Amino acid sequence: MKANANRAAAVARPRSGIPGTQSEPVPTENELYGITELAREFGISLRAIRFYEDKGLLAPRRINGGRAYTRRDRVRLGLILRGKAVGMSLAEVEHILSLYGDHGEGHAKQLDYLVGRIDEAMQELDTRRRNIEAMLGDLADAKGQLQRTLALKRRVRKK
């Protein structure tokens, strides 16, 4: 659904010299994306995109009865999927997106929140690691004791 006028207005990126990369147009603010195009790009279903729209996380324009997603919607979809990939709830993703504001005025708040959230996650993982290490030690002790008991039983049978 990318409009031809918008495509012509996009600026071409220079080749990076990395194999497999192509010179693609840099999207302009007015460039629109269709739902199928976004689904293909992000590797998700149309239903997933509609779900995020129903939850108020995406707000596509309606053009001739179809959904037209802006560059902002595309970025938001990427952030939603990243948040989901690291275990955030949709409510938390929505909160983070709402901190940004309509014009980026809350970007610092958004970053502060994310830094705090990362600190919490790191503390939780560190606690889990300590618990796993303790459990591994307990299991190793139990295994050693069972192996000694088994060895004694085998010696008694041989006599």
Itemize the secondary structure elements and their pairings.
Layout: H1 4-9, E1 11-12, E2 25-26, H2 35-42, H3 46-54, E3 61-63, E4 66-68, H4 71-85, H5 90-100, H6 107-158
Antiparallel strand pairs: 1-2, 3-4
Describe the protein in words.
By secondary structure, this protein is mostly helical. It has 2 domains: about 1-90, Multidrug-efflux Transporter Regulator, Chain: A, Domain 2 (Orthogonal Bundle), CATH 1.10.1660; about 100-159. The protein is built from 6 helices and 4 strands, in the order H-E-E-H-H-E-E-H-H-H. The protein has helices spanning about 5-10, 35-40, 45-55, 70-85, 90-100, 105-159, and strands at about 10, 25, 60-65, 65-70. Strands 1-2 form a two-stranded antiparallel sheet. A hairpin with a 2-residue loop joins strand 3 and strand 4 (about 65-70). Helix 4 packs across helix 5 and helix 5 runs antiparallel to helix 6. The chain starts with a helix and ends with a helix.
Topology, number of strands: 4
Q: What is the CATH-assigned architecture of the largest domain?
A: Orthogonal Bundle
Terminus-to-terminus distance: 84 Å
- What's the CATH first level of the largest domain? Mainly Alpha
Q: Let me know the average pLDDT.
A: 81
Strand order of the main beta sheet, please? 1-2
Q: What is the SS-derived class?
A: mainly alpha
Radius of gyration: 26 Å
Helical residues, percent: 55-70%
The CATH topology of the largest domain: Multidrug-efflux Transporter Regulator, Chain: A, Domain 2
Number of domains: 2
Order of helices and strands: HEEHHEEHHH
